[in-house]
Amino acid sequence: MESTIQPQAIPTTDFHQHFQSLIELSSDSLGSSILAVSDQWFAPAESLLKPHPPLDLRGQFGPNGALYDGWESRRHNPSHDWVIIQLGVPSGTIAGFDIDTTLFNGNEAPACSVYALDRLTPPPDSPDDPEWTQLLPVVPLGPSARHLFKIPETTKGYRYLKLNMIPDGGIARFRVYGHPIPVFPAGRCDLASVLLGARVVVTSDQHYGVGSNLILPGRGPKSMDGGWETKRSRQPGHSDFVIIKLADAGFLDYAEIDTNYFIGNFPQLVDLYATVSDQMVPDLNSEWTEILAKSKLGPHQQQYFQLTKPQEKFTHVRMTIYPDGGVKRIRLFGRRTAGCVGPAEIPISDLSVQEEQGHIIPTSVPMKKTGEALRRLPILPLTRAGFGLYGSVIEAHLDLRASPAEMRSKVVNFGTATKLDHVARLETGEGGLPPSPNLCLFSCQPWTPDHTSPGRLEWRLKGLERHQFSSQTFIPLATHLRTADQTERDQFNSQPEGQYLIVVALDENGKPNMESLRAFLGCKSQGISYSKNIWHAPLISINNRMDFACLIYETGDPRVDCELVDIHNVVCELDHAGL
């Protein structure tokens, strides 16, 4: 279907003025892909969707001729070549194009046009489908140049695009700009996801990697590429920051900060502040609220942090790193204010949701049950950074560069093993009778969740215990995956078999400090060691029986060795959508 759209040619010098507020929907970083192509004899069409600028391959040849970083077809096409692209977002509105012929000189496509299809299923496999709608009429292209075209933003969303190359030749990159039409899941989701419409709106420095990479899907390339990285700082007290506009206003529960492949250049510390603004970029006088105090980061790993102020609504989050460095991804999990659950949707059947000033309280906020406040505690993946206040995480890094700097290693066993020293601190203290080490075995049966729903499991705590004069170490008796590949390890550790729930709290005057209460999800390749005097729930196996070797110092007096308190007002939520 032909259209009457009149495109506006934009000089490349004005790119930021016209395209800065838009999202590149066609990038393969968002999951966009090639469905069909008429011809790609000299260079593959998939290169059109690469996020980085075209590489200079001059002087290099393959079996079919000179190499180019782009899409190039055969000569002498009597009609035209075409490629069909599926966007990574479910659908998106379209507002502009960047058609780049960089390094194609003498073999560039002389002209092109763009069509779109709003049908979700079935995907198109023919360039002649009658439902194709023209978005960009035939426009001329020149050699080795970017060609920017702005159109009135479409009122409907599209999933598929067709680029016609008239008649043949080469195009290096095809960038489509617009806005994703979000499909928000029920309950908790990543409100910093670009797929839902989040944006990085301010970046203090992006010398090596742009800030917008932070909110892309996945964990990025297996290198330092594809993240946010700042230049080295030379001034004491320096910091760098980004500001993220959330996909929608919401209540934030926890954050994931991923330093994947940033090993010698990860930031030392990070903090998070949030605010409310109806503007793309908050005013300079906006009031920012701390939701994560300065916290240590580690190399080459996903780190999870429970956030404060889960009852407050926010629209923007500022992440500050100290003093500089690189971060691959940030996720901010919470619930939209527009999607707060109503009373009929509260999982625990004996609860009633209260309203304050006409607003339903989100599920991350304490709720009232006949004078009892119920706390809903998100279960976060177990990491050294998150668990550090309560003890140690015992796990092997086959890539030893990701191990903490203070953990010394050496090769032993005639070169067949690596020994890591002091992976956990074993503690004991005087409680009257002299303590003795007890190496014991725990065989833990799975606890049935108090509630199950699609994507979520919930357990209501029964109590906490502490060992005032001893640490307590648990090592799962399970097979480890013998691979250093991060993707394979993630898949192995995310299997339901071999997962267990850990709930901990600091002590305050002989009682659990409920403000410090945290819940973690351990896996079969991780052990833990509680520091002495840490309150904790019994280990809760999730799906199957788990056996643990346990080391604890005991006096033989049960009143000294283990103290119990009842806890009935805490529900732990395992949200599979978030993890």
TrEMBL record:
Highest taxon listed in the record's lineage: Eukaryota
Sequence ranges assigned to domain Allantoicase in this UniProt record: 31-180, 197-336
Pfam families: Allantoicase, Ureidogly_lyase
InterPro entries attached to this UniProt entry: Allantoicase, Allantoicase_dom, Galactose-bd-like_sf, RmlC_Cupin_sf, UAH_cupin, Ureidogly_lyase, Ureidoglycolate_lyase_dom_sf
Keywords noted in UniProt: Hydrolase, Lyase, Purine metabolism
Record flagged with keyword Hydrolase: yes
Keyword DNA-binding belongs to the record: no
Reaction it catalyzes: (S)-ureidoglycolate = urea + glyoxylate
One annotated GO biological process: allantoin catabolic process
GO MF term (any one): allantoicase activity
PANTHER family: ALLANTOICASE, INACTIVE ALLANTOICASE-RELATED
Family to which this protein belongs: Belongs to the allantoicase family.
Quaternary context: Homodimer.
HAMAP family referenced in this protein's UniProt entry, alphabetically: Allantoicase
Protein name as annotated: Allantoicase domain-containing protein
Organism, scientific name: Puccinia coronata f. sp. avenae
